[in-house]
Amino acid sequence: MSHSLTPRMWLTAFLGISRRETLRFVNQRGRFLAALVRPLVWLFIFAAGFRAVLGLSITPPYQTYVLYEVYVTPGLAAMIQLFNGMQSSLSMVYDRETGAMRTLLVSPFPRWFLLGSKLVAGVIVSIIQVYTFLAIAWFWGVEPPLWGYVTVLPALILTGLMLGAMGLFLSSAIRQLENFAGVMNFVIFPMFFASTALYPLWRMRESSTLLHDICAVNPFTHAVELIRFALYQQFDLLSFSVVLGCLILFFTGAVIMYDPARGLWVRRKGGA
Amino acid sequence: MSQIALSVQNVSHSFGRFQALKDVSLSVPQGGFTALLGVNGAGKTTLFSLITRLYNNTSGRIEVAGNDLRRQPAAALARLGVVFQSRALDADLTVAQNLTYHAALHGIRRREAMARAETVLAQVGLSDRLHTRVSALSGGQQRRAEIARALIHRPEILLLDEATVGLDVKSRSEVVSLTRELTTEGVSVLWATHIMDEIRPEDGLVILHRGEVLASGRTEEVTGGEDLTQAFLRLTGEEG
Asked: Which sign does the torsion angle of CA A11, A13, A15, A21 carry?
């Protein structure tokens, strides 16, 4: 009997992995709600409170003065993807503690494909969350151009992949679930706050040059800016390049780390 | 002479300075039930991780149904079904959802997977549990569902790593009998265990101790008529 993998089999495997991720997501309605409530709290409460405090000059891609809610929305969309990327890597750590990761990895398909499929499945889920959030934000007065909702899609795919790949890479290095809480504190919060999600770069420079420089090299800043520009039908080459570069870097790192011949896997006794 | 379903030749593996397996060789005949007997820490799980390519084997040679694991990993893994010691089914999903997911990991489409799911669930006596959530199954049923999962892509060899751990006596006996029945259908079984009474005199036996194979052959030949526990203690040098 031949066991060569036909294109149809690859598609079946990808759809199977996506279906499982979606089912898990649907079954965990609390997760969906939490993912939605988090940015909405920022939008409804934080942004409203800071509207008066934080004055914003005209910064690209905006052609006029914008309300703080409008400024903060792309950052909150990226935040959804950041949390989603971390959450799916959390599920990878959980899968590894049970035998689910082992069964995934003993499939005859190559590891880059299995991990990539898991990554793409996670991104699909995050995009559903982002569009739900953008729809609610529209009722709150955040009304980007209608075509912006279309042009933002490729940006969301790319940023979702990058943030998911980062989570994947981190999950390969984390041994147990308990360690993951630390990563949440040391990765999510610094990345989010030291970015342009909540305040533009020039605001940062006013308070600290060092902080400004940190924000400028933070990949999350570029994810936020890519989404911000795309939502207003513009393309920011720098952000695009940084996000793409980080995606390649993190995903390659994850594949190496999950490779049986290389990475931490080799040294980790019983760690699969 | 019967054909060899799984062949492990001169395989060693180390974690840093600790050598977990030392020049291990064993074979599982087609349609045979071979027990891999060893106490905890003997190296059984490490050996399974090498056979399933979770770890890369750099020494010796592993062949699954004639396919070299290093050169033809996809063909080798496609012929392998594995029941790991830890739970691999998603407790929040139904048995059918789990089985179709695992079928997809072998490139089997949904419609075909559903038909196969019914067949394998009948094999393990869980026909009426197709749409039950895994979390609603008993421990023994979950283990049987794990076996169904491992069988869905019709593997030629089934590896089970301490498959009865945590089960009560009745469920344990059911899982062992079920696995033995599979050999009558042509599936070859490598059964890792530390429980002596799961092994019969006519079974193949490999005794693994501190990473080394101390004895292998038919159980009754290895024991030479002696009680298996006594023979095991004698061979491992742990007699009282």
From this structure: negative
Residues of B in contact with A109 (CB under 8 A): 74, 105, 107
Q: How far apart are CA B122 and CA A79, in angstroms?
A: 47
What is the rounded distance in angstroms from the CA atom of residue B55 to the CA atom of residue B57? 6
Q: Which residues of A sit within 8 Å Cβ distance of B?
A: 3-6, 8-10, 12-13, 15-17, 19-20, 23-24, 27-28, 97-100, 102-110, 114, 259-261, 265-267, 269-270, 272
Q: ipTM value, please give it.
A: 0.83
> How many residue contacts between A and B have a Cβ separation below 8 Å?
121
What pLDDT band is residue B8 in, cutting at 50, 70 and 90? very high
Alpha-carbon span A163 to A123, nearest angstrom: 9
A91 vs B121 pLDDT, higher one: B121
State the Cα–Cα distance between residues A110 and A136, nearest whole angstrom: 40
Structure tokens at A145: 């151009």
**B1-79+155-240: what fold?**
Rossmann fold (3.40.50)
Strands B188-193 vs B204-209: parallel, antiparallel or unpaired: unpaired
Domain edges within chain A: 7-267
User: CA-CA distance, B51 to B46, in Å (whole number)?
Assistant: 9
pLDDT tens column, B33-82: 999 999 888 899 889 989 988 887 778 899 999 999 988 888 999 999 99
User: For A149-190, what is each residue's pLDDT tens digit?
Assistant: 999 999 999 999 999 999 888 887 776 656 667 777 788 888
Q: Residue B93 and residue B91: Cα distance in Å, rounded? A: 6
User: Would you say how long chain B is, in residues?
Assistant: 240
pLDDT in tens, B131-174: 999 999 988 899 889 999 999 998 999 999 988 887 888 888 88
pTM: 0.82
CA distance B194 to B213: 14
Residue B189 token pair: 């079984």
Most A-contacting residue of B15, B47, B51, B55 (CB-CB within 10 A), to test interface: B55
